[in-house]
Design brief:
The structure is a homodimer of 380-residue chains.
Chain A: E1 4-14, H1 22-25, E2 32-36, H2 40-43, H3 46-53, E3 59-62, H4 71-83, E4 88-93, H5 95-108, H6 114-120, E5 129-133, E6 145-150, E7 155-160, E8 166-169, H7 179-197, H8 205-227, H9 232-244, H10 259-271, H11 275-289, H12 295-306, H13 313-330, H14 344-357, H15 369-377
Parallel strand pairs in A: 1-8, 2-3, 2-4, 4-5, 5-8
Antiparallel strand pairs in A: 6-7
Helix pairs in contact in A: 4-5, 7-8, 7-9, 7-11, 8-9, 10-11, 11-13, 11-15, 12-13, 14-15
Chain lengths: 380, 380
């Protein structure tokens, strides 16, 4: 096991009716700005619940953080926040609103341009914020991560902001999500686990078991949610799984990969592919191309998650990869670039971008532009 | 899933050589008291490491917190702390030193007598503290719990203190533990999980999987540790397992039991039985007596942890309980009262104590004095 430091300060406030606790969670004496996406919270009742919980409190609202939040939008929120002396934020929405709010929290506390904060990769100074999560998927409600898009250059990069002080997770708010949103959320959670799990074997028995535990849970609930997306316990498991998939709990003392995410971000930046969907396309390709490197862990994954015990090692590895792709498809997602009308041109742009930046991703930092090309070609 | 609030602020600093980080973890401007047990840290080099890490810093030391820490000892530490204006503690030792230090942290911040704090059950005011853990077992390094003994009345009760600000876990410090200490530590961790897992089924797939993940890991490492107690990765898994077994991570949204602990505490209070060992004796009895109530979960436990898939449901339940007892025995622990020369008199004292206090423990609060008698009689 590698040395590690773990500390996750976020208070998780989970369950029915918990939005009503907002007024006790947000300090009394702050200048509050609430951030939202495009307006779905006005339709599903969440906006009403938030306003009711904060009745009598003063706050301003910032609307319009889009899916794959754009720095151009967030700069406006930062300017507004500075003018209004905002010193506390509440993000109400899905992963994009939360990710965007992390940059607003950093931008208000800084003189740097917001995009430069993203390029720097982290921010020491941030005003505090809490969240009301409406779309289980990214884990942003309980981690430091944030991914921001710059529209004018079609770039999308991850960086590290700060942890929310609290996050309210009421599974009932998921009842109005579309099938596609849920599919992407489940794919996102599942892939987050694979990024932290399909690496060098034997680093930690416990982290392996916990990763497999999230995978098995997501696999078990996915078909049931299709049948009954208003079953409270199912949606609670889904919501908790998405949080636990990416809140540092399953990565103690182990290496991580994230090459699939880096390639997926490019698909989203260039084609607007929903994040979770981009991962469903890329992950099977990553596994096909890196299957020798990931051989032992793929065997373990196949056995423990898919109960694959027959055949030669190579057959079992291939079967595990096939079943991974099948799982994504079972959610209702396509897993091939051609199904999304993404062709060779995009593959070449991504290859060129990686090569020009001189980057190499993955656990062993060997996913260069050329390897990314190979991965994407295997996803055609 | 039940509503829940989760927040665990402890910073876990895990790995080789991490004790050297003490000076960056403890604020510069505090009046520090370091607390220890009986002196094993002077033999295994931990005391030297702590002193080296804090070279140039001023601090006082309090020695002699015993196994099953006694309020009588802790009152002396509290008095000393008050006289010396101590406002930060560092606990260096096993679960007893850490539990005792939680009471010192509360006592220094309070005018109440220390035993009254224990009887009250919690403490709002505590001075901050960090820990250097030397015996993986109780999870005290990352939770609020503390169990204190009052020697004069042979009473032992749990109460809730505060989380350590940080805990340093260096698996190398476990190399000098005795076989019995390791056996008790593994039994303790295993039982902590069972207390949070063998309850009403179907509350959370994820929490079930994570609980099973810790159980499977502990079962897997236990025989290997016997063979090689200086294997770093094994001891790292052991150390992390003990922490994750009782740091709130596997109890989100689920009910808990803890009847076995309540009965075990009595055995320790009356006979000095090591905590983990007392659990190894009582837990199989609890399961035998409550096997109807825990039927469905015992079936799941048997299948997923012991791979029991043959026989009638009743046979599988019985087999799961048998294998639990066998696991404790495989650690090198006895599991019967008669093996420890504990007889009927003790059973009657415990029954009387529970009845006089009017308490009833367990998930369904039905473990009264008379049920405790039944459990203990099944452990003879």
């Amino acid at each position: 096991m590698k040395n590690f430091i773990f500390q996750n300060p976020t208070k998780l406030v989970f369950g029915k009716g918990q939005i009503a606790r907002l007024s006790e969670l947000i300090p009394d004496d702050v200048n509050l700005m609430i951030t939202y996406g495009g307006g779905s919270v006005t339709k599903n009742g969440v906006h009403e619940q938030v306003k009711a919980a904060l009745k009598g409190r003063k706050f301003i609202e910032f609307w319009g953080i889009e899916a794959n939040p754009q720095v151009e939008t967030l700069r406006r929120a930062i300017s507004l926040g500075k003018i209004e002396n905002i010193n506390y934020l509440l993000a109400v929405g899905g992963g994009s609103v939360l990710d965007g709010t992390k940059l607003i929290a950093a931008g208000i506390a800084s003189d740097m341009d917001a995009w430069n904060i993203v390029l720097k990769g982290y921010s020491e100074n941030n005003i505090p914020f809490g969240t009301v999560l409406t779309v289980p998927a990214t884990g942003s409600e309980m981690n430091q991560g944030s991914v921001i898009t710059r529209k004018e250059t079609q770039e999308k990069y991850g960086w590290m902001g700060t942890y929310p002080q609290f996050s309210i997770l009421d599974p009932e708010v998921t009842y109005t999500l579309s099938e596609h949103q849920i599919a992407c959320g489940l794919a996102d959670a599942y892939t987050h686990v694979l990024e932290q799990y399909l690496t060098t074997p034997g680093q930690s028995r416990l982290m392996d078991r916990w990763a497999e535990g999230v995978l098995l849970s997501v696999m078990e609930i996915a078909p049931k949610i299709k049948e009954n997306p208003r079953d409270y316990n199912l949606m609670a498991d889904y919501m908790l799984a998405a949080t636990l998939a990416l809140n540092d709990f399953i990565r103690m003392g182990v290496t991580q990969d994230w090459a699939t995410h880096q390639i997926g971000h490019e698909l989203t930046a260039l084609h607007g592919t929903t994040h979770g969907h981009s991962l469903a396309i890329v992950m099977p390709g990553t596994l096909r191309v890196l299957k020798q490197q990931k051989h032992d862990k793929l065997l373990q994954y196949g056995e423990r998650v898919f109960s694959i015990t027959e055949g030669s090692e190579q057959e079992r590895v291939d079967k595990a990869i096939e079943m991974t792709e099948e799982f994504y498809r079972s959610l209702g997602l396509t897993t091939r670039l051609s199904e999304e009308n993404i062709g060779n041109e995009t593959i070449e742009i991504i290859t060129k971008r990686f090569n020009e930046r001189g980057v190499a991703f993955g656990e062993n930092q060997n996913v260069t532009g050329n390897v990314a090309r190979e991965i994407l070609k295997s996803c055609v």
